[in-house]
User: Which sequence fits this backbone?
Protein backbone atom coordinates (compact mmCIF):
# COMPACT_ATOMS: atom_id res chain seq x y z
CA UNK A 1 0.00 0.00 0.00
CA UNK A 2 1.25 3.46 -0.92
CA UNK A 3 0.16 6.14 1.55
CA UNK A 4 0.54 9.74 0.45
CA UNK A 5 0.08 13.03 2.27
CA UNK A 6 -1.25 15.71 -0.03
CA UNK A 7 -3.06 19.00 -0.34
CA UNK A 8 -5.99 19.91 -2.56
CA UNK A 9 -8.10 23.06 -2.47
CA UNK A 10 -6.22 24.19 0.62
CA UNK A 11 -6.95 21.02 2.59
CA UNK A 12 -4.36 18.48 3.75
CA UNK A 13 -5.17 14.78 3.96
CA UNK A 14 -3.72 11.27 3.73
CA UNK A 15 -4.76 8.83 1.06
CA UNK A 16 -3.94 5.53 -0.62
CA UNK A 17 -2.39 5.81 -4.09
CA UNK A 18 -3.77 3.25 -6.53
CA UNK A 19 -4.48 2.72 -10.19
CA UNK A 20 -7.45 4.53 -11.65
CA UNK A 21 -10.53 2.81 -13.11
CA UNK A 22 -8.80 2.65 -16.50
CA UNK A 23 -5.33 3.11 -17.91
CA UNK A 24 -6.41 6.43 -19.40
CA UNK A 25 -7.41 7.79 -16.01
CA UNK A 26 -3.99 7.47 -14.38
CA UNK A 27 -3.38 6.94 -10.65
CA UNK A 28 -5.86 8.21 -8.08
CA UNK A 29 -5.77 8.81 -4.34
CA UNK A 30 -8.45 7.24 -2.16
CA UNK A 31 -8.75 9.66 0.76
CA UNK A 32 -8.61 7.93 4.13
CA UNK A 33 -10.49 8.73 7.31
CA UNK A 34 -7.99 9.49 10.07
CA UNK A 35 -4.26 9.01 9.73
CA UNK A 36 -1.99 6.07 8.89
CA UNK A 37 -0.56 5.68 12.41
CA UNK A 38 -3.74 4.01 13.64
CA UNK A 39 -6.52 1.92 12.19
CA UNK A 40 -8.12 3.84 9.34
CA UNK A 41 -10.85 3.46 6.76
CA UNK A 42 -10.86 4.35 3.10
CA UNK A 43 -13.50 6.93 2.35
CA UNK A 44 -14.12 5.69 -1.18
CA UNK A 45 -13.77 9.28 -2.36
CA UNK A 46 -10.96 9.50 -4.90
CA UNK A 47 -9.11 12.36 -6.54
CA UNK A 48 -6.72 12.12 -9.50
CA UNK A 49 -3.09 12.10 -8.40
CA UNK A 50 -2.38 14.67 -11.10
CA UNK A 51 -4.69 17.19 -9.40
CA UNK A 52 -3.09 17.19 -5.95
CA UNK A 53 0.13 18.55 -4.55
CA UNK A 54 2.15 15.81 -2.86
CA UNK A 55 3.57 16.89 0.50
CA UNK A 56 6.29 15.27 2.61
CA UNK A 57 4.66 11.91 3.41
CA UNK A 58 5.25 12.48 7.14
CA UNK A 59 6.22 15.36 9.41
CA UNK A 60 8.78 13.70 11.66
CA UNK A 61 9.55 14.79 15.18
CA UNK A 62 13.13 13.79 14.37
CA UNK A 63 15.20 12.28 11.61
CA UNK A 64 17.91 9.89 12.79
CA UNK A 65 20.46 9.30 10.04
CA UNK A 66 23.18 6.67 9.81
CA UNK A 67 26.52 7.58 8.27
CA UNK A 68 28.91 5.35 6.32
CA UNK A 69 26.57 2.37 6.09
CA UNK A 70 27.76 1.48 2.56
CA UNK A 71 31.41 0.47 2.39
CA UNK A 72 32.07 1.88 -1.09
CA UNK A 73 30.64 5.25 -0.11
CA UNK A 74 32.79 5.38 3.01
CA UNK A 75 35.83 4.58 0.85
CA UNK A 76 35.07 7.19 -1.81
CA UNK A 77 35.32 9.91 0.86
CA UNK A 78 38.46 8.43 2.36
CA UNK A 79 36.76 6.90 5.40
CA UNK A 80 36.60 3.44 6.90
CA UNK A 81 33.41 1.71 7.96
CA UNK A 82 32.99 2.47 11.68
CA UNK A 83 32.92 -0.29 14.28
CA UNK A 84 29.46 0.82 15.41
CA UNK A 85 26.75 2.71 13.50
CA UNK A 86 27.38 6.46 13.41
CA UNK A 87 24.10 8.28 14.06
CA UNK A 88 23.33 11.96 13.61
CA UNK A 89 20.21 14.12 13.51
CA UNK A 90 18.57 16.19 10.82
CA UNK A 91 15.97 18.63 12.19
CA UNK A 92 12.32 18.58 11.23
CA UNK A 93 12.84 21.95 9.50
CA UNK A 94 15.10 20.25 6.95
CA UNK A 95 12.18 18.27 5.49
CA UNK A 96 10.63 19.12 2.12
CA UNK A 97 8.43 17.07 -0.17
CA UNK A 98 8.48 15.90 -3.78
CA UNK A 99 8.74 18.79 -6.20
CA UNK A 100 9.78 21.23 -3.50
CA UNK A 101 13.01 23.17 -4.08
CA UNK A 102 16.33 22.43 -2.44
CA UNK A 103 17.66 25.88 -1.55
CA UNK A 104 21.43 26.08 -2.00
CA UNK A 105 22.83 27.29 1.35
CA UNK A 106 24.71 30.58 1.34
CA UNK A 107 27.47 29.21 3.61
CA UNK A 108 28.56 26.39 1.26
CA UNK A 109 30.21 26.05 -2.14
CA UNK A 110 29.99 22.25 -2.35
CA UNK A 111 26.58 20.66 -1.88
CA UNK A 112 26.20 16.93 -2.60
CA UNK A 113 23.27 14.58 -3.18
CA UNK A 114 22.96 11.35 -1.17
CA UNK A 115 20.20 8.91 -2.20
CA UNK A 116 18.89 7.00 0.80
CA UNK A 117 16.20 4.54 1.83
CA UNK A 118 14.15 6.07 4.63
CA UNK A 119 12.37 4.01 7.28
CA UNK A 120 9.13 5.54 8.60
CA UNK A 121 8.27 4.56 12.17
CA UNK A 122 4.65 3.59 12.78
CA UNK A 123 4.39 3.43 16.56
CA UNK A 124 6.15 4.73 19.66
CA UNK A 125 8.98 2.38 20.51
CA UNK A 126 11.99 2.04 22.79
CA UNK A 127 14.53 -0.78 23.23
CA UNK A 128 13.07 -2.74 20.34
CA UNK A 129 14.28 -6.37 20.19
CA UNK A 130 15.52 -7.45 16.79
CA UNK A 131 12.62 -9.85 16.24
CA UNK A 132 10.09 -7.03 16.78
CA UNK A 133 11.59 -4.43 14.46
CA UNK A 134 9.11 -5.21 11.69
CA UNK A 135 6.23 -4.41 14.06
CA UNK A 136 7.31 -0.79 14.64
CA UNK A 137 7.79 0.14 10.97
CA UNK A 138 4.98 1.78 9.01
CA UNK A 139 6.84 1.62 5.72
CA UNK A 140 9.57 3.10 3.56
CA UNK A 141 10.11 6.14 1.38
CA UNK A 142 12.85 7.81 -0.67
CA UNK A 143 15.15 10.40 0.87
CA UNK A 144 17.95 12.69 -0.21
CA UNK A 145 20.43 13.44 2.58
CA UNK A 146 21.61 16.68 0.97
CA UNK A 147 24.99 17.60 2.43
CA UNK A 148 27.18 20.70 2.44
CA UNK A 149 30.33 18.64 1.95
CA UNK A 150 32.82 21.45 2.45
CA UNK A 151 31.15 22.39 5.73
CA UNK A 152 31.07 18.75 6.82
CA UNK A 153 34.84 18.52 6.28
CA UNK A 154 35.52 21.85 7.98
CA UNK A 155 33.36 21.50 11.09
CA UNK A 156 33.65 18.69 13.62
CA UNK A 157 29.86 18.50 14.05
CA UNK A 158 27.62 17.74 11.07
CA UNK A 159 24.66 19.79 12.30
CA UNK A 160 24.95 22.65 9.81
CA UNK A 161 26.34 20.53 6.97
CA UNK A 162 23.39 18.11 7.02
CA UNK A 163 20.72 20.02 8.89
CA UNK A 164 20.15 23.18 6.88
CA UNK A 165 16.66 24.04 5.65
CA UNK A 166 15.52 21.89 2.68
CA UNK A 167 18.35 19.35 3.18
CA UNK A 168 16.00 16.39 3.68
CA UNK A 169 13.61 15.82 0.77
CA UNK A 170 11.26 12.89 1.47
CA UNK A 171 8.69 11.17 -0.73
CA UNK A 172 6.80 10.66 -2.85
CA UNK A 173 4.81 8.43 -0.48
CA UNK A 174 5.23 5.69 2.13
CA UNK A 175 5.25 2.14 0.77
CA UNK A 176 3.99 -0.27 3.45
CA UNK A 177 4.35 -3.49 1.48
CA UNK A 178 8.10 -3.97 1.93
CA UNK A 179 9.55 -6.36 4.49
CA UNK A 180 12.99 -5.80 6.09
CA UNK A 181 13.95 -9.11 4.44
CA UNK A 182 13.29 -7.47 1.06
CA UNK A 183 15.76 -4.73 2.00
CA UNK A 184 18.41 -7.28 2.91
CA UNK A 185 17.78 -9.18 -0.32
CA UNK A 186 18.46 -5.97 -2.22
CA UNK A 187 16.29 -3.22 -3.71
CA UNK A 188 17.78 -1.03 -6.42
CA UNK A 189 18.60 2.50 -5.24
CA UNK A 190 19.91 5.27 -7.43
CA UNK A 191 20.19 8.98 -8.08
CA UNK A 192 20.20 10.98 -11.30
CA UNK A 193 21.09 14.63 -11.82
CA UNK A 194 19.55 16.21 -14.92
CA UNK A 195 18.82 12.69 -16.15
CA UNK A 196 22.42 11.48 -15.80
CA UNK A 197 23.03 8.51 -13.51
CA UNK A 198 25.19 9.39 -10.51
CA UNK A 199 24.44 6.70 -7.94
CA UNK A 200 23.36 3.12 -8.56
CA UNK A 201 23.43 0.45 -5.88
CA UNK A 202 21.38 -2.05 -3.95
CA UNK A 203 20.17 -2.00 -0.37
CA UNK A 204 21.80 -5.40 0.13
CA UNK A 205 25.10 -3.47 0.15
CA UNK A 206 24.27 -1.94 3.53
CA UNK A 207 26.91 -2.80 6.11
CA UNK A 208 24.25 -3.10 8.81
CA UNK A 209 20.65 -4.10 8.04
CA UNK A 210 17.49 -2.27 9.08
CA UNK A 211 16.99 -4.50 12.13
CA UNK A 212 20.42 -3.68 13.55
CA UNK A 213 19.93 0.05 13.01
CA UNK A 214 16.57 0.19 14.79
CA UNK A 215 17.91 -1.86 17.71
CA UNK A 216 20.94 0.42 17.99
CA UNK A 217 18.93 3.66 17.86
CA UNK A 218 16.19 2.58 20.25
CA UNK A 219 18.71 1.47 22.86
CA UNK A 220 19.28 5.19 23.36
CA UNK A 221 16.06 6.99 22.47
CA UNK A 222 12.33 6.66 21.95
CA UNK A 223 11.13 6.81 18.37
CA UNK A 224 7.70 8.32 17.75
CA UNK A 225 5.12 7.67 15.03
CA UNK A 226 6.27 9.50 11.92
CA UNK A 227 9.93 9.62 12.90
CA UNK A 228 12.32 8.77 10.07
CA UNK A 229 15.52 6.74 10.01
CA UNK A 230 17.90 7.32 7.09
CA UNK A 231 19.92 4.20 6.33
CA UNK A 232 22.99 5.50 4.48
CA UNK A 233 23.88 6.12 0.85
CA UNK A 234 25.62 4.04 -1.80
CA UNK A 235 28.73 5.22 -3.65
CA UNK A 236 28.56 7.90 -6.31
CA UNK A 237 27.70 11.01 -4.31
CA UNK A 238 28.54 14.23 -6.10
CA UNK A 239 27.96 17.95 -6.43
CA UNK A 240 24.73 19.78 -7.11
CA UNK A 241 24.49 23.19 -8.74
CA UNK A 242 21.73 25.78 -8.87
CA UNK A 243 19.30 24.74 -11.61
CA UNK A 244 19.97 21.00 -11.29
CA UNK A 245 17.10 18.52 -11.08
CA UNK A 246 17.97 15.64 -8.76
CA UNK A 247 15.93 12.44 -8.59
CA UNK A 248 16.19 9.57 -6.10
CA UNK A 249 14.62 6.28 -7.23
CA UNK A 250 14.17 3.17 -5.09
CA UNK A 251 12.83 -0.07 -6.50
CA UNK A 252 9.34 -0.86 -5.26
CA UNK A 253 8.77 2.64 -3.90
CA UNK A 254 9.05 5.31 -6.59
CA UNK A 255 10.96 8.47 -7.47
CA UNK A 256 11.55 11.63 -5.46
CA UNK A 257 12.43 14.65 -7.62
CA UNK A 258 13.57 18.09 -6.51
CA UNK A 259 15.19 21.10 -8.17
CA UNK A 260 18.06 23.10 -6.72
CA UNK A 261 17.47 26.84 -6.54
CA UNK A 262 19.42 29.87 -5.38
CA UNK A 263 18.45 31.43 -2.07
CA UNK A 264 16.24 34.40 -2.86
Assistant:
Amino acid sequence: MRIARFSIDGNVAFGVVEDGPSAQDGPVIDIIKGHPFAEFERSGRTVPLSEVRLLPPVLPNKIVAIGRNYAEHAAELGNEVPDVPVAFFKPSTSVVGPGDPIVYPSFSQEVHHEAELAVVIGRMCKEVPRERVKDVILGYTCANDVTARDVQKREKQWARAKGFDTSCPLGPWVETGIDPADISAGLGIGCTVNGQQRQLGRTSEMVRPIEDLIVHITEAMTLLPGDVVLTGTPAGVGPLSVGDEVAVTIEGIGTLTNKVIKRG
Notes: The CA atoms of residues 127 and 218 lie 5 Å apart.
